[in-house]
Task: inverse folding
């Protein structure tokens, strides 16, 4: 049974709301394809959580726009923002529909698998364990792109998502990292994050 | 006044239909952002043409699935395809909504422009003119990625779209090429395609 929270007006800049909606919706499509391809229920559920987050952002943005528009001229200037926000919401809904294939056990038809396979790079999620060498390190210091061809595209910490984390962001125990890269690299990174020995890991 | 064609059943493999829908819908999002950012009416109209193409593909795919499903077990196996097709259709609709900002003269609010600017690579369309050196050449022989950092992501020839054209595909007079790359590279390529002198063009 989903939990429904009252959406209260919060004075968050429209720019921030729209940027988060756009980034999340694009990430969600990638995540949803990966969830379906790998039949990954956790990832699929993350997509559904994000879908609900985008819905909330959409409500907040609509309220913000209403408050901002004082006259018909303002409304004309702001309608473009409203259209783009609604479009990102549609994209997020589409990602949620694809994720539901996994959460509702619909099964990925071979044709769907084949088409999603064409995504050259793969996504993987890894939960940072206590014995991992990356705990407390900065994203930039891990030098993942050069070492493993891997990019951390999002960090979920508790219920918050950081999309495209800054290189000064530190990795904490329990963080869920979404990485993108070639299959071998992301597998090696998952081992590293989860404190497993890995062939690609540098000697200590 | 739009022209409505009767959608007749055509025996096209589901795989082909779904792959074209997925590729087009993803391309359309990029094209729609670019159309809005550069206030490019031609590009925006292309997006709307593609939206209508995706609608047609969706109808054809739905009919194909109906014909393919002989019993409830088939239907259960095929419903995943139907969900993915509907999701790509939603994404294509979202792209169409963004394109409509341009075709309906809504104007791109600075906040929207700022957010679309964050797309690191740019898209440009160029129509191949008769005096261009690329007429008749193969896409692969142009060696665009190495020379200019430019990638041809789609060719529109008459009313047909080739997405991610093969390197053996030849460029013809009148082709509309959609390219992706850094701003300088795509500008240089546009000059080349349109038969204009360009600094980045190799000496003859």
Result:
């Amino acid at each position: 049974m989903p939990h429904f929270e009252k959406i209260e007006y919060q004075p968050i800049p429209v720019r921030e709301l729209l940027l988060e909606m756009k980034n999340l919706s694009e990430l969600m499509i990638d995540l949803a394809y990966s969830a379906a391809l790998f039949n990954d229920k956790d990832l699929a559920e993350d997509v559904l959580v994000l879908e609900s987050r985008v819905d909330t952002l959409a409500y907040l943005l609509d309220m913000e726009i209403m408050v901002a528009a004082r006259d018909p001229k303002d409304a004309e200037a702001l309608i473009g923002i409203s259209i783009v926000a609604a479009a990102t919401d549609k994209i997020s809904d589409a990602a949620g529909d694809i994720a539901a294939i996994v959460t509702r056990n619909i099964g990925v038809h071979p044709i769907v698998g084949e088409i999603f396979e064409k995504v050259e790079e793969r996504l993987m999620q890894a939960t940072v364990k206590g014995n991992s060498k990356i705990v407390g390190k900065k994203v930039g210091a891990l030098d993942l792109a050069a070492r493993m061809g891997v990019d951390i595209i999002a960090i979920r910490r508790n219920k918050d998502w950081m999309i495209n984390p800054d290189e000064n962001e530190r990795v904490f125990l329990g963080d869920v990292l979404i990485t993108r890269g070639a299959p071998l690299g992301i597998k090696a990174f998952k081992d590293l994050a989860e404190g497993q020995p890995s062939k690609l890991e540098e000697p200590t």
